[in-house]
């Protein structure tokens, strides 16, 4: 009887110990689970923070690119705002009369700020939209024809200057034009007219930008 009671008591103790151990394991598992959940929460917050930082960085990069673009535009506008040229025909004496009209090429360049006038073609190409002023003079000496030149914008005649006198004389004119980028301005030399130039640079073509638009 005593032996049986001893066995029952021992069994009860074992069961109680096993229950305590199970409770400890359960509590330990819950603790680990809570720690994992906490770490997952922190990782999620870090991920969200990184996403926010990435968005903010992209916004900063976009603003930086915009600023760089504005700086480049302002630099280009400043460079393009300095436009002026002046050139004489040549030192070769009479030119004309001819059977057909041609573009006069002013090869003796005095000023060409921005290099938008071409001494190879005689054409000024507009670099920036704005208002420009052009001045030109043609000189002729004696017979058989007076001087005459016409300023063209692209293929359109704008203003003409003619000298019908057979003696030495100048024909001069000027014009102010609103032009856009890519427009071309040049001097047309009509048939049956003539011009003269020498070391005194009597026949000239000049232009400059007044202001941008």
DSSP strand tally: 12
How many helix segments? 1
Cα(first) to Cα(last) distance is 118 Å
The rounded Rg comes to 45 Å
* Shape-level CATH architecture of the largest domain: Sandwich
Largest beta sheet: what is the strand line-up? 4-1-12-6-9
Please trace the helix and strand order, writing H or E for each element: HEEEEEEEEEEEE
Estimate nothing, just give the exact number of structural domains.
2
Helix coverage percent of residues? 25-40%
GO cellular component, one term: extracellular region
Domain C1q: 78-213
Protein name: C1q domain-containing protein
Keywords: Coiled coil, Secreted, Signal
Structure described in brief:
The chain has one helix at residues 2-80; strands at residues 84-88, 93-95, 102-103, 108-113, 124-125, 130-140, 148-153, 156-162, 169-179, 184-189, 195-197, 204-212.
Secondary-structure map with pairings?
Elements lengths: L1 H79 L3 E5 L4 E3 L6 E2 L4 E6 L10 E2 L4 E11 L7 E6 L2 E7 L6 E11 L4 E6 L5 E3 L6 E9 L1
Antiparallel strand pairs: 1-4, 1-12, 2-11, 3-10, 5-10, 6-9, 6-12, 7-8, 7-10
Give a structural overview.
- By secondary structure, this protein is α+β, with helices and mostly antiparallel strands.
- It folds into two domains: 1-81; 83-212, Jelly Rolls (Sandwich).
- The protein has one helix and twelve strands; from the N terminus they run αββββββββββββ.
- The chain has one helix at residues 2-80; strands spanning 84-88, 93-95, 102-103, 108-113, 124-125, 130-140, 148-153, 156-162, 169-179, 184-189, 195-197, 204-212.
- The strands form three sheets. Strands 4-1-12-6-9 form a five-stranded antiparallel sheet, with no helix packed on it. Strands 3, 5, 7, 8 and 10 form a five-stranded antiparallel sheet that branches.
- The radius of gyration is 45 Å and the shape is rod-shaped.
- The mean pLDDT is 82.
